[in-house]
Amino acid sequence: MYIKGPFATWVPKPMMLLLIIIFLFPLIAMNGVYTSNMTDISGALATYAEYISMANNATAIGMGVAGTIVMRVKMRFRSKEILVFCTTALAGICYLIGTTDNILVVVIGSFFIGFFKMFAFMEMMLPVMFILSPTGERGRLYSMFYPLVLGVGQLSSYVMADLIFNSSWQAPYFVMATVMLVIAALSLIFQHNQRFGFKKPLYQIDWLSLVLLSISVMCLNFGLTFMRQQGWFNSPFITGSIVISLVLLAIVIYRQKFLKRKLIKFELIVQRVNLWHAFTLLMLMGAYLASTSIFTQYTLNVLGYNNLINAKLNLWMIPGIIIAGILAFYGFKQKWNVKFYIAAGFVVFFLYTLMLYLMIQPQMNIEYLYFPMFLKGLGLGILFIGIWYYATLNLQIDDMISIIGIMIMMRSFVATAFAGAFLSWAAYQGQWQSLNDISMYLENGNFTDGISLYQPMQINATLASFKIVLGYLCWLIIPILIFVLTHHYGQLNSRRIVFLRKVVRGNTIRGYKFSN
User: Fold this and answer.
1) C-alpha distances in angstroms, 376 versus 282, 299, 307, 341, 466?
2) Closest CA to 287 of 420, 427, 118
3) Which among 272, 303, 320, 437 is most buried, taking Cβ atoms within 10 Å?
4) Does residue 439 carry a pLDDT above 70?
5) Are 402 and 262 in contact, with CB atoms under 8 Å apart?
6) Is the dihedral of CA 454, 458, 464, 468 positive or negative?
7) What CATH number has the domain spanning 264-442+464-475?
């Protein structure tokens, strides 16, 4: 009989909880590229920053690809076997990235870090899900699980930034490699040897579709990341990568129609209103999340902060994330309409963007940025919880497992990458336009030392372009709220439809109750 939980029966329950924390927190923090060392890696390896962004996206892609088969692998191997193998593999990849001078190793290694991380993470996530929500209530689970994951992620980013600041960019990889080996050793000691269920053969997995899907998304990753650097669609590499990505994705979708055991049930996205609506919301959320690049450029290039100060500033997101979880927990308990919860998340992101738009200037005290970061954390927590909750509404466990990989890639890569490519183009065009406007005034003046004006001109043009992009993002809230508030979110009131229909037709409504 399978033992509930990953540990042997002789392990005391307090120690089980401690071991779950020891295992889970490093797995949450594990990444192929840490946001606090992106500039350090590109400088140390003398390569374009786009390669580092591509590697960062590759981690999310690896997790999404693994998500399509994670439960099937769990049905084949013991929990101990999965955790020991994956953490050992993660340790090896971390050491490889920390000692390489080839950027392609970083990109490919980041993909496999996300891939193996997903299997190990799932082994710890399942018992945590049972602890947080014993009855399986998804609203209660998401309101506690996402604040935990997002909060630990921000805290780990600060720890890694401090580690890099006091040593080198390789330090996080060596530390994480050591931690993964410690987890593997603890797993050998404390985990049981029983299986989750019957032994499921691996040949039932559609490995060809898995490989084609991986190549497709990685090609899209290259195209979206290098668009600006390669001159947009003037480059054959960009158009070629996007065309290859779309063709391979079409092949995977077509292949799934004729398989008995489908890797991904793509038809669910069309058949389930909540799924395609949730995917649209994720794309809209990605527009606001992509503005993080503008904020980072502003703090690093204009205000002159370093990565450690930036990471410390991001810690102010944690209180907002916690409050988002508290609101969700209370809201789901009181049966609030999820429509207004999601709308509130977008409104908070709008306020965050509006504050940045109003506050951006050449000089600013860091204390003024605390509250915008709090709002960013609040909006991030609300939308992560609300959108994921609605996406999985009324989905059976098999359907949810089938689509979870696509949802992860959509949320953590596609949405932010598409929006990031568009915003980088808009900022680039705005900067050139601002420089052109400034130069028209300079032509009428007589300057003895024109070169001294270059840096102020560059800063002013950059700030002007940031304000242009942030201004358009502020206006985006109008169509978003129309889209959100006109959707029923699974709480359709048929009596209201009858009432509205009679009003439109001019019929009498006497004797009808507006509400149930």
Assistant:
1) 16, 16, 18, 15, 17
2) 420
3) 320
4) no
5) yes
6) positive
7) 1.20.1250
The DSSP secondary structure of 63-91, one letter per residue, reads: HHHHHTTHHHHHTTS-HHHHHHHHHHHHH
Which residues, listed in sequence order, are joined to residue 7 by a DSSP beta bridge? 191
Q: What angle (nearest 5°) sits at the alpha carbon of residue 21, between those of residues 189 and 194?
A: 40
CATH of domain 1-202: 1.20.1250.20
Q: Which of 430, 492, 498, 502 is nearest to 467 (CA)?
A: 430
One-letter amino acid of 413 = F
Q: Which residues contact 452 (CB under 8 A, 6 or more apart)?
A: none
Q: What is the mean pLDDT of the chain?
A: 80
Count the neighbouring beta carbons within 10 Å of the beta carbon of residue 140. Answer: 17
Asked if 348 and 384 touch (Cβ cutoff 8 Å), the reply is: no
The H helix count followed by the E strand count for the chain is 22, 0
Rounded Cα distance, 58 and 398, in Å = 26
Report the alpha-carbon distance of residue 231 to residue 247 in Å, rounded. Answer: 23
CA 482 to chain CA centroid, Å, is 24
User: Are the CB atoms for 427 and 465 separated by under 8 Å?
Assistant: yes
What is the amino acid identity at position 360? I
Which residues, 6 or more positions from 15, have their beta carbon under 8 angstroms from its beta carbon? Answer: 190
Q: How many residues belong to the chain?
A: 516
* pTM of model > 0.70: yes
Amino acid at site 115? F
Unique residue bearing structure tokens 């998500």: 67
Confidence of residue 181 (pLDDT cuts 50, 70, 90): very high
Residue 505 has a CB neighbour count (10 Å cut-off) of 7
Spatial neighbors of 491 by CB under 8 A, at least 6 apart, are 337, 338, 339
Cα radius of gyration rounded to whole Å, the chain: 25
C-alpha 166/C-alpha 162 separation (Å) is 6
DSSP classification of residue 128: H
Single-letter residue type at 434? S
CB atoms within 10 A of CB 439: 11
Secondary structure (3-state) at 5: coil
pLDDT tens figures, 453-471? 656 677 777 777 788 888 8
**Cβ pair 311, 437 in contact under 8 A:** no
CA distances from 430 to 230, 302, 471, 472 (A): 18, 16, 12, 12
